[in-house]
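[job 0417] fold request received: Aminotransferase class III-fold pyridoxal phosphate-dependent enzyme
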Amino acid sequence: MAQREQIRTGERGVLAHFGHMDEEPMTITEGDGAYVRTDDDEEYLDFTSQLYCVNAGHSNDAITDAMAEQLDRIQYVSSAKDNDARSQLADTLTEVAPQPLTDVFFSISGSESNEAAIQIAREFQDASTVLTRWRSYHGGTYATAGITGDPAIRLPVESHAATTGNVKFLPPFGGADAAFDADSPEELTERSLAHLEYVIRNQGPDSIAALVTEIVGGSSGAFTAPPGYFEGVRELCDEYDILLIADEVITGFGRCGEWFGSQTEGIEPDMITFAKGVTSAYAPLAGVLMRSELGTALREDAMDIGQTFAGNPVACAAGNAALEEYDDHLIDNVRELSPALEERVRSLADHDVVCDVRGRGFHWAVEFADPETGELVFDPRVEDGYNPVADVLTRTREKGVLVGGGRPLIQIMLSPPFCVDEDDIETGVAALEESIEEVFE
Ligand code: PLP
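[job 0417] inference complete; emitting structure tokens
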């Protein structure tokens, strides 16, 4: 049996994350810009950026050359020592991030960054409760699964209370299962903030260490907050002495048209967690940007946290080169082409089965509901049931375009690399639109 078939049937090989591989897993062997190629020589326009990571596109010479050059000099330096590539990256990160964030703690993955941020917040605040949001995703490790709103991720660890205790959830801003039925964005802001203040007061402000939030929802559905919401959150966090942690694992590094999503909302979080786009996924690297008070506390209290591979020099060299590419032209490309992408994706809302289109910059979700009732088209948790959204994904792929499945799979995610052009945008969205028509109409 071919290895690929054995992997698919689960007999041997790579264990898939999140419990499953695609039904017909493709073997991607090469990439170039916004395109990937498979072992059977098929080419696909990659509108997923491979899990929202490869912002600079595949096979970017500036990044691979910088990595090769670093490998020639030295491949690894312990995180207890200094390293020039690592310091350079920290300098640039603190320049492009919202200004009060002066210190960087490097880690390896987004999950570990969120783990560190929660641990630092709990230690610094001497409080344990973390506020987070339903329909969010913050990671696949124990504690981060516990602050993830997606039940498929959270429920299996929820009974392990020692790792996930003291977490309270806030509602998302929209989608078919929106909690607040507001008549206007302003009313939604008002109601969401009133609800947050109610939770804070009743939970007891002194017991709350931090509020963790994506700025634009990630794989759980590209939710954008109504105008003024995040400013209000910042004010409430100041008033009640709660640390505001922005999980920018997806929204960092230009995906929303600014270096960080927080800047698109005009807010200054106390910590920003980042990963994916920092190296454009040329090497695993992540971290936590934080205010100087927190950095100082970490230095002085010497909280013993860290990981062997955190801030690896080759990964940092990739990060330095990726950040130059973003600065040089890639974030400009996102700004320039976002209106065209937004208009084209929003046009999908003309289809009756599409109940919501939302997002910002180069990160969009298209959610499906029954046109008559507005209810979800199906229950995505029913095992082995036919899922029309999965069918749309497959058909779009058969047309040569990769789009992503959101969690839960009632939505489709579009997050192209920043190197696409207007023709790519049309090709990508048109393939999705045709597939929606085939499946639903
Ligand atoms: N936070 C968000 C918003 C994410 O989208 C992800 C991963 O998709 C993570 C955290 C976890 O990052 P990682 O998979 O690198 O651990």
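[job 0417] notes: Residues 51, 109-111, 114, 137-140, 214, 218-219, 247, 249-250, 275 surround pyridoxal-5'-phosphate (CB under 6 Å). The CA atoms of residues 183 and 235 lie 24 Å apart.
[job 0417] exit 0
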